[in-house]
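Subject: two folds for Thursday's group meeting

Dear M.,

Sorry for the delay on this. The cluster queue was jammed most of the week, so I only got both jobs back this morning. I'm pasting them in the order they finished. Each block is the input sequence followed by the predicted structure tokens. Could you check whether the formatting survives your parser before we put anything on slides? The first protein is the one we discussed after the seminar.
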Amino acid sequence: MKTVFVDVDTQIDFLFPAGALYVPGSESLLPRFAALNRYAASQGIALISTMDAHSENDPEFKDWPPHCVVGTTGQQKPAATLLENRVVVPSSTSDVTIAGAQQILLEKQTTNCFTNANLERVLGELGAERYVVYGVVTEICVKNAVLGLLKTGKRVELVTDAVQSLDAAKAVEVLESFTVQGGVRTTWAEVMAQAA
């Protein structure tokens, strides 16, 4: 079963207390995020890493404090989550080639990765039968990723101990909705123990 890992928004502004939009507790998950990404590389599994890539006056800042502004330290991913052979896929339609890349850094300006004009093409090229998703924030960007992936009709697994929420009650609702719609809950240890 061809698998693709999806690492959602594991960026400095979200993961660390000094970050502009810190998700409390998420820094403790960094070793798991890094281990999952490295596991993908070791198994030849393609990795999509969604990344907020905002301008200084981004419309999203009407709803959220400024964060992940392009060119700032906070917009970057921690070094431990980066793979050596990576390519950046911008939000606007682009002919960037993903062939041979271990990690696809998929930029976005909203909470929904499916607003990236290239994502459907990327998914088509990867041809996954199974998606394994983890990252932040469970009830916002992770939710949009898993629900969008479920619409592809493929198997979608959410690594429940490698996600972090801002609102625990809303996160529970997301998990329940995800399961009802056919999503599968898993753990990082179960994922790491499986062959690609």
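Second protein, same layout:
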Amino acid sequence: MSTPQPGQPEPAEPEPTEEEMRAAWEEQLRHITVADVLVQTAVSLVNLAGRRLGLGPDGEAERDLAQVRDAIDAVRALTPVLERADGPETLKPLRDALSQLQLEYAKLAPGAPPAPPSPPPAAGSQPAEPGTGSAPSSGRLWVPGR
């Protein structure tokens, strides 16, 4: 293999064939789990909901509270399945992000119906302690001093 001279572009790598791309895809599918896809879906929904709250670079131009509500409901529906696969402690960052979305949504949609209670925690999980920033397992928001 020759070394390119200064100022000359490096030789382009050949495009993979359809067969090589299919083999790479099959290899990825051998290693991915349903839980991996569900976590990625939940994270994508949280990120999209943040943008639809108006927290993205375009601010309020992207605000769509109906989409935020749907994203919150979808992540809440996925949470019990993810807890079975990964355990409740692994999902703490996701639950925290979901709690923040719910708070922001509640601030922006004062006429919105209250969210149904969160699904019960997985068997053996402990409710969050006050002051940790997590919503308790009852589904109600923790309010300092209460």
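Two things I noticed about the second structure. The longest helix spans residues 34-55. The mean pLDDT is 78.

Cheers,
T.
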